[in-house]
Amino acid sequence: SANASGDYADAHGVYTWGGIDNFTNNGTISASANATGGNADAYGVYANSYIGDFTNTGTISASASATGDDADAYGVYAGDISSFTNSGSITANATGGNADAYGVYAGDISSFTNSGSITANATGGNADAYGVYAGDISSFTNSGSITANATGGNADAYGVYAGDISSFTNS
Known about the structure:
The protein is built from no helices and eleven strands.
């Protein structure tokens, strides 16, 4: 686990500036950022460029809290994801003046399969919560739960938010 507290706080459970070819998590990954004077950013998994094959059967969580400022929490963040499979739990919680929470955030996802739980919770003056956020998704299959909760003066919640989805199956 990664924990950061201070005026400004950033926490990353797993961080790579490049990419991850094969990612498998069967355990627990957590990141918690608590800012008392500025912004807070928390990432369970951060791959700036890409994740090739992503498999999660464990628990991934990110929690960001900022006193009056911006709080951003990402369970999984990647430039792109080729193959995403989740049968575990992914959670992102953000609380702040402006709060954004993303269970999964990616530029594009080629293949997405979820039989587990993905949850995003945002609370703030402006609150946005996204269970899954992607530019495009080629193939999307969900038999699990994807939940987004936003609470605040201006609140928006999206279970799945994408530019285009070529094939969508939910059961």
